[in-house]
Amino acid sequence: MIYDAVKELNSHATAEQVFDYVAAKYPSISRATVYRNLNQMTESGELLNIGSVDGSSHYDHNCQNHYHFVCDKCKRIFDINEYFPDIPGRIKNPDGFDITGHNITFNGLCWDCKK
After folding, report:
1. 62-78 tens-digit pLDDT
2. Reported confidence tier of residue 104, pLDDT bands at 50, 70, 90
3. What values do phi and psi take at 17, rounded to 5?
4. Angle, CA 20 vertex, CA 18 and CA 23 arms, to 5°
5. How far is the C-alpha of 77 from the C-alpha of 103, rounded, in Å?
6. Distance between CA atoms of 22 and 27, rounded to whole angstroms?
């Protein structure tokens, strides 16, 4: 039900938004259960935690490699369905880090806020 909530919300929902959505259907569910399951689903690769926007982590059911765009004005998050797997190989790495992935977020104004 928690995964389905993230998918149905389809908005890169916060944990609190997921809780509110699930609690409307299942009032006895606890906030801790929702948060714990979001963390477990992130660890198992079922969901992506795309990071913090305005202090809240956001979750994505689309686990395919892609980037995100965050509108500076309305704070909505959009998928950018491009992915450039060669980016880690193009980074100068004088410290010898083993880069295993990357997460890139673009910022600007969405089409609604540009109007």
Report:
1. 998 899 999 999 999 99
2. confident
3. -65, -40
4. 105
5. 14
6. 8
Confidence of residue 61 (pLDDT cuts 50, 70, 90): very high
Burial (Cβ within 10 Å: 0-12, 13-18, ≥19) of residue 81: exposed
Q: 80-86 long-range CB contacts below 8 Å, 24 or more apart?
A: 80/106
**Strand pairing category for 67-71 and 105-108:** parallel
Find the length of the chain. Answer: 115
State the Cα–Cα distance between residues 107 and 89, nearest whole angstrom. 24
How many whole angstroms separate alpha carbon 76 and alpha carbon 61?
16
